[in-house]
Amino acid sequence: MTAGLAHPAVRTVEIATEADLIRVRQALRAASEQAGLGLVDSTKLITAGSELTRNILTYATGGRGTLSVEQVRALGRNGVRGTFTDSGPGIPDVDAALTDGFSTGGSLGLGLPGSRRLVDELTVATSPSGTTVTVVKWGR
Amino acid sequence: MSETLPILKIGDTLLVALQGDLDDAAVVRIEEQLTQEVARVHAAGVLIDVSGLTVVDSFIARVLARVVAMIRLLGAQTVVVGISPAVAITLVELGVPMGHLDTALNAEQGLALLRRLRAAADHGSDR
Amino acid sequence: MSDDGTRLRVLEAVATLVSDGIATLDPQGVVVGWNAAATELTGYEADEVIGRSVSLLYTEEDTARDLLATELDGSRGSGRFETEGVRVRKDGSRFRAAVVVAPLTGADGELTGFVKVLRDVTSRRADEAMFNALLESAPDAMVIVDPDGRITLVNRQAEIMFGYHREELVGQTIEVLVPQRLRGRHVHHRDGFFAAAQVRPMGVDLDLFGVRKDGSELPVEISLSPLDTDRGRQVCAAIRDVTERREQAERLRRQRDEIMELSTPVIQVWDRVLALPIIGTLDSGRAARLTEALLEKIGELQAEVVILDISGVPTVDTLVAQHLLKTVQAATLMGASSILSGVRPETAQAIVHLGIDLGRLRSRNTLREALQLALQIVRDRSSAMSEAAADVAGAAW
Question: The complex's ipTM?
Answer without folding.
Answer: 0.90
